């Protein structure tokens, strides 16, 4: 599959306020931060030293009390207490060098949690902003590559399609399924989402493809056709749209507008290196 990967992108990946301490932003800077996120789709803040409760505190102070997964989990005595907080997921292999990696599914291209029910009044996915804080980062990926998270600008992807293709897709929706339970079934709610969405804040149109488990309306009983439709569309996107790769440094926090970009993690040698990343998802954007 043709794929052009870049580390500098015209829109994605802007560093916000170099040298700042995220916990000490002024009200004006918080407003600028949000503006930058909507404008750039992916932004990063570097050299941060936060605990899990602080990361969540920042999410709530910035976007309102709308973080995902507040079900309290029992404290894991094998993991640093500073990394644990309800609503903050720990990704990677935080306990030991092990191939038992939390979040391996993230190595496939996807929008996060696209199968969740939609929020009333929102055209976009329920999970609006994702924050990923790299606490401990492998110094390299595999096969001589850098350790990165890759992003695709789905607004650019839409704009790169022919007008005819855009119009075709604007008529169509897909069912979005959890990647963990990809088979449609009576007890699995399937969320219907238009393939072309209009962003609530910027008004720009973008493609919203979920993951390769998404099923075009009318293909519910034709899984092979549904997969082929998704793959061909995604290949068209990859052929015309450069992939932006964020090269991780410890202390980076990458924020993305989940409705504007797709992302994919990249593998690393988990027998040799540990990776600890904290993830917070914001499920609403009413405080834009
Ligand atoms: Fe993800």
Structural key phrases:
288 residues, alpha+beta, binds fe (ii) ion, 20% helix, single chain, Double-stranded beta-helix, 4-stranded mixed beta sheet, 6-stranded mixed beta sheet
Helix content: 10-25%
Proportion of strand residues? 15-25%
CATH class: Alpha Beta
What shape does the CA trace take?
globular
* SSE succession: EEHEHEEEHHEEEEEHEEEE
Count of DSSP strands: 15
Describe the overall structure.
The structure is a single chain. The protein is of the alpha+beta class and 288 residues long. It has a single domain, classed as Clavaminate synthase-like (Double-stranded beta-helix, 4-Layer Sandwich), CATH 3.60.130. It contains five helices and 15 strands. The strands form four sheets. The chain has a six-stranded mixed sheet with strand order 2-3-13-5-15-4, with helices on one face. A hairpin with a 6-residue loop joins strand 9 and strand 10. The longest helix is centred in the last third of the chain and has 18 residues. Bound molecules: fe (ii) ion. Fe (ii) ion binds next to loops.
